[in-house]
Design goal:
220 residues, alpha+beta, 3 helices, globular
């Protein structure tokens, strides 16, 4: 009887596992399109915070280049999209993915908008594990600190001043938290260096105006 009981319980557990798997798979199939669309809309909102509608007339989500994993300046762990903002066929800004590997609690994933003239259009932190109430002030929802990058460039401030004030730079740090803003400042500067080094390919690639030169289809 003990053997029969064990066998019966094993069969019931197996059936339960099969039913659970089917339910989970079914739920995923039914909701994956909804989840993908919600993710796309959230991504679009983040892009529009950096380059608003009045500055471009294309759909940035569908107008992209590829930033390759392993690129030193961007610090990416996998390939990601570079978004192009165009007006009347001319690329006015690019939005670069960049990862700061040296946050206090790990990597910080960001996007950095760079205008055609090399100035910062905007910076947003997309994902992090920084300490609530301290390092999480890099989020716009928690403080306006991230807005301090707008209009900055590799020449404004001078290279030696691209640091937090504790390190002799011009950017504020947070009370009790220096590592997080230090990482974001450094990552933003690297994104600007990436855009400067690849300016022609980045901005010509999305330029469809009549006078535009031929350009590569992706960033290298």
């Amino acid at each position: 009887m003990l053997g029969q009981s064990i066998t019966r319980n094993s069969v019931l557990l197996s059936l339960f596992a099969v039913v659970t798997t089917v339910l989970i798979a079914g739920t995923y199939l039914l909701t994956r399109d909804t989840i993908a669309e919600a993710r796309r809309q959230a991504e679009q909102r983040a892009l529009l915070e950096i380059v608003p509608d009045e500055r471009h007339d294309n759909n940035m989500l569908d107008d992209t280049l590829t930033a390759r994993a392993g690129e030193d300046l961007l610090g990416l762990r996998r390939d990601k999209a570079i978004y192009l903002a165009r007006e009347a066929g001319k690329t006015v800004a690019v939005i670069l993915p960049v990862t700061a590997p040296d946050g206090y609690s790990g990597a910080i994933d960001m996007i950095v908008g760079v205008n055609r003239d090399g100035s910062v259009a905007g910076v947003r932190v997309l994902n992090h594990r920084e300490t609530p109430g301290l390092g999480d002030k890099v989020e716009l929802a928690k403080s306006d600190w991230i807005l301090g990058f707008e209009g900055r460039s590799l020449g404004n401030p001078a290279p030696k001043d691209w640091a937090v004030k504790k390190d002799g730079g011009v950017f504020d740090q947070f009370t009790g938290a220096t590592i997080t803003p230090r990482a974001v400042v450094a990552a933003t500067r690297r994104a600007l260096q990436y855009a400067e080094a690849r300016h022609d390919s980045l901005f010509a690639a999305g330029d469809t105006s009549p006078a535009a030169p031929n350009a590569p289809s992706g960033a290298q």
